[in-house]
Records
---
Amino acid sequence: MGNAKHTFIIMKPRVSSTPKLYLFRNEEEARLIVGSNNITEAGLYVNVEAGLQTDVAVDSPIIVQVLEALASWKDTASRLAFRLDPALLQRLVNEGYVPDEANARAQLRQARQRRGAAAARPPIFGSRSFSPPANVGAARVAASRTTVLRQPAIPLAQPVAAGGTVLLMRLRRASATARRTQVQIPIRVVDVFFGNTNQVISTHSGIGHNIIRARVRGGLNTIKLEMPEINNFVQPFARFEHTPAGIAYQVYDLGSPQGNQILASLQQGRNDRTTQLSISDSNRATWWRFI
């Protein structure tokens, strides 16, 4: 190396071992951030973190792929994700995934003791202090907490015995001449999943919609449901779920990440015979599958 001088720099970055994904979007634009930082004061302003940000149109292929990934990650049918309810939380505590308050306090005391012992020794690495920006939105956040919601939030799902907790459906409109926001529900599905329920709640709006039971000569003929969200849909798909507040639904069009996910699940069910059809013509039939 001759007389050349070489300088070696040792760094001790505080980075997370798990990448995080953040997606912000409006009707036209989307911002995707993939990085190591948490959304905390330390993650944003103190730690050394690495991340990649991209700003694209909201319908960009990369945003569609991210939405599909997010939809698959939270799909409870895969058993890789679960809705957090009191029973699941208790199980997580019992099996040590989540510490109870007493254990959490003990862990905090031990961490403080370790920091106190470390403070008595001269540090190897130096540090720099950064001040976070002023929280200009604090007043708006405080004000928003006093706002009364138009509809109460739908509680988390509770298991039910008949038909499963979740019902996936490829919907069929009531008729070619009927308004496009009304769908027909097969009687077999009503008997098993809906029972005597007379109303379902839209998670999109928080508004309840009545189940219409049409009878002919004393017998049940058809069941119809008004779903305003599907007016402009090409092929609507629905996800119904039992909750303590009643049955809630979400609807998505074919081509959306969630709609494609429901279609994929229904098609998988056709292979293992867990998906049922209202009529033999699959193109005109209502499809459904219990999860």
---
Amino acid sequence: MLDVSSLRVAYGESEVLHGLDFSVAPGEIVAVMGRNGMGKTTLMKSLMGVIPTRSGHVRMNGDEITRLKSHQRVARGVAYVPQGRQIFSTMTVEENVETGLTVTGERSVPGEIYEMFPVLLEMKNRRGGNLSGGQQQQLAIARALAAKPKVLLLDEPTEGIQPSIIREMGRTLRRIRDERGLSIVVSEQVLSFALDVADRVLVIENGEFAFEGPREGLDEDRVAKFLSV
């Protein structure tokens, strides 16, 4: 579904990602783990077209999308939940989700979105800025799903969220994958969450992949060492 080859990304003359190669199968959840500053967010932004690629290729279902702008990638089926959620705080919950409908041509939020996030139905007329961190994260995911993506990118979704909500989010992501057949790429520092949701774990270290392995039988101690400061 998503295929990345020899991906190099730089800020000015400073190269941050050094020729990354990985792929994500249809219906697969892949966790990209690593400490702060290792390149996780840069990878997510480059996959979404927020920052340009220096060289390499990003393909979606076999089609080259490397040079496409962000809105064009959304139309091709890529959705992005950025770090910090970045919802529209003065808009209502419903208005926030409706912003994700622009590429689908639909006018109203599909009932299945509210079925997946019932708390958003209860609060659909409340301003986004009045929601808790966990509720805002659900809102950001719902907004992304409104675009009916094939690939969902989530950057640090557990940041600033209490453990009980993190567990619920894990269940939700697996349900999204199972019911919609999405491929999901999630960047993360919380190992327990990654092990809960991911089929496969990649560890990024200084802009390169230092480890890759399936969740089953994963050497947790080895991965944890990469995450320790």
---
Amino acid sequence: METDLSRRGFLGAAGAVAAAGAVAGASAAGAEAAPQGKKIKILAVSGSPRKGKTTAAALAVCLEAAKAVDPERIETELIDLAGLNINGLVAAGIELPPGHKDDFLALEPKLSDPAVRGIIVGSPVYFGDMTSLCKAFLERLMVFKKTLALSNRVGGALAVAGARNGGQENTLRSIQAALFAQEMVVVGDGRPTCHCGATLWNNAKDDIAQDAAGIATAKNLGRRVAEVARMLARA
């Protein structure tokens, strides 16, 4: 019997074993939180300060694709942060001035709902990275890190920029880093694109409809988040 001891053969075999173990472990971890047959909720959070614009539109595409994976079990909701008062200083233990409105408190029940199995965070690209609003939101997730309440939820990232290569991937990485810190299962956009996440181009007319390549990544991300969430729920 011949054995492939080449570097490629060894790495291929090792990767197959590791992948099989990871899938099995992930399935076991998600089994308790969302038994078979229960509703699966996917949230999308828009970190754009401009309400209802291209980031929200791109996330709506994600959610539509996520819903299509299992229309009977999957529910979706878009949370638009535009216009909300979310201060990241609270995550550092700094109290807000008396009378200061804190809109993040109203979001906590939505995010911690056990039915939520996937969260997609999207941001426009400002100076090569996420917006301050998106960053403040991710910093406020500190409240969940204390108990790892978001552990094993599926996370995804989306970025919209004013140019085809305008900093989308750096923005994705920044968002993903925050999700990793919550012990979430972070995924990219699925096949056939299989990149780090959804990357779209705003053509300066607040219209992503003409960006077929970007729309494809948004659809693939939504579908991938839903597929993995359903797998973890032992569908």
---
Amino acid sequence: MTSQHSDSRIDIPALLIRLPLFQALNAEEIATLAAHSRPRRLLKGEMLFQKGEVAHGFYVVVFGQIKLAFPSSSGNEKVVEIIGPRQSFGEAAMFAQHAYPVFAQALVDTLLLQVSQDIIFELLATDTSFARRMLAGLGMRLHSLIQDVESYSQRSSTQRVIGYLLQHCPAEEEADGGVEIVLPTSKQIIASRLSLTPETLSRILHDLTEAKLIDMQGKRITIRDLTRLRQYDF
């Protein structure tokens, strides 16, 4: 774990102002926010919090990845979300003053900013634009969860995998061209995120390779033609 001395050299205001949630705040508000925030470094595999712990603030990922998951009845775990750089999490539990419904674990070495709930409630009371952005962020999170439920109930396993691959393609790529992506985490975690078994995910990726829609080399996937992949009939 990195020393406290090293953490003290982190420029928290500079990190905060680059985050979409805080970009409209003025210098005084950023300084106040920074005074109530602290860096948290996690090593790969380290737990940030357990399911059932009470929230006292929320977190923003500076770099790294955080897995949000809960144990399933089968004794495994269900991955709810994978949080990456410039994304936040924990807001809903903070607002509700409830326990976390999931656990949070670092998938790689990760730097977070932990933001105190006291300063967030103060900003919400004095800055209506900040309140709107916070509500918009929570709304997008809820919309994403609803889409997940719809995907799991109405889309086939292959459709889920293709949707996941397309989601990770750069937006500026040409529809009729190929594109290379790198899976952000292990296939086991991706399978859980898509409510699939690892074996099913591997079979679907193999089938897409056999259909000459993708090429695979470890976590690196080359989509030969985005249009063909979107239109794949299965």
